[in-house]
Amino acid sequence: MANARALDKRRKAVRNIRKITRTMELIATARFKKAMDRASAASAYTRQITQLVSDLANSGLEVTHPLLEYREEVKQAKLLTLTANRGLCGGYNGSVLRLARKHWTKLTAEVESVGLEVSGKRGITGFRHTGIEIENSFTHFDDQPTFAEVEAIASRYLDDYKHGRLDRLDVAYTMFVSSSKQVAVVETLLPLGALAIDSGPAADAESNESAGESMYEFLPSAESILEEVVPASFKVKLFKCFLDAAVSEQISRMVAMKSATENADDMISSLSSRYNRARQSQITGEIMEIIGGVEALES
Amino acid sequence: MASIKCIVVTPEATALEQEADFIALPLFDGELGVDVGHSPLIGRLGLGELRLKTGGNISRYYIDGGFVQIADDVVSILTEAAVPAAELNVAEEERRLAEAQEQAADSPERFEQRKRAVNQARARLRIAFRA
Prior knowledge:
By secondary structure, chain A is α/β, with parallel strands linked by helices. Chain A contains six helices and six strands. Chain A has helices spanning about 5-60, 90-110, 120-130, 145-160, 200-210, 220-299; strands at about 75-80, 115-120, 135-140, 170-180, 180-190, 215-220. Chain B is of the alpha+beta class. In chain B, strands 1, 2, 3, 4, 5, 6, 7 and 8 form an eight-stranded mixed beta sheet that branches. In chain B, a hairpin with a 2-residue loop joins strand 6 (about 55-70) and strand 7 (about 75-80). Strand 6 of chain A pairs parallel with strand 5 of chain B, so a sheet runs across the interface.
C-alpha cells in the first residue's frame, strides 16, 4: 500500500492543476462569448453584400470578374493556414495542421511553385518540424482579429493575383458550424468561384429568378459596382475565416479545459479514497503494534 | 413626419442604425443628398463625410468607400470603416497625411497604394477640421 503522505502530496498537486484548468475554462468561455458576438456582428455585412449581389444579378448583369474566373494554368499557389498562438485547446491545432499538410503535399504535386503562409505560433512550429519552409507568418492575430489587420493581408493577395504572381489561394482553417461542431476545412478563396457568400436559400432563389428589370438605379453603373463588390466580398470572406478560426479556438479550448477539470475531479476522488484507505491501514497497523507490545509486556 | 432609416455596416459590426430626416452621402463623384421618398438606388461610395440630420442635430461620420443601397426609405451603407467625426483629431490626421506622403511610390502598385492612403488621410483631415 502506498504511503499516505505521498498520496496526499499527489492529491494536492492535482488540486492545484484543477484550479488552473478551471480558470482557463472560465477565461475561454468569456472569450468565446466575445468572439461569438463579433462573429455575429460581422454577419450583418455579409448579409448586406449578398443582398447587393443578388440585386445586381437581378438587373440582368452578366456577373463576370477576373477574380471569379478559374485560370487554366495554375503556376503559383498559396496555402494560408490559420492556427492558434497558444496550445491547450485539444485537437484544434492538430487537426488543422494535419489537413494543411495533406493539402500541401497534394498542392505541391499539382503546382510548380507553392508558397506557405501560417498564422499562429502553433502552426509555425508544427510546419517547422516537418521541414516545410514558411514564406510568411503572422502571430499578431489573437482571439479578436480586426478587419484592418486582415484587410492588409487580403489586399496583398489581391494585388498578387491581379499582377499574375498568384493563381490560386487556399485557406486551411477551422470552420465554425455550431457550438458543438467545428471542422477543419480547406477552402479555395481565389479564384472566388461563385460570388454569393454562404447565401441562404432565399438569396439563391432570388438570384435564380429571371433577370428582369431591376428597380434600382446604378451609380455609376452596375459593372463598376460589381468591380468593387468582388474584392470587397473576397476581403470579407477572408475576414470570416479568421473570425471562424478565432471562435473555434476558444470553443475547443473551453471544451478541452472542461474535460481536464472533470478528469482532475475524478482523479482527486480516487486519490482521496486511496489516501483514506492508506491512512486507515496505517492506523490499524499502529494499533496492532501497540496491542502486540502490551501483550508482550503482560506475558 | 416620415423619416429615413440609416444603417451603416462595417465588416466588424453594425456601426450605426438610426432614423434621420435627411442624409448626405459621399458618392464616388460627389455628394448625394437623400430625403424621404428617394428612388431606389445602388451606388458606389467614395471617401468622405456622411451627414445625418435629425431634428436640428447633425451627426457626422467619416466613410471609407464602399456601397450604398437605397430602397423604401432605408439607406444601407456598406463600408470598410465608419468613424464618428468627433473621434477624428486634426493633429493625428495631419500626421497620418504626412506618413502617407512619405510612402515610396516606385512602382505602379505602390503608387496606387500611396494615392489611396493620401486620399484617405485628406478626407479624414477635412472632416476633422470641420468637426
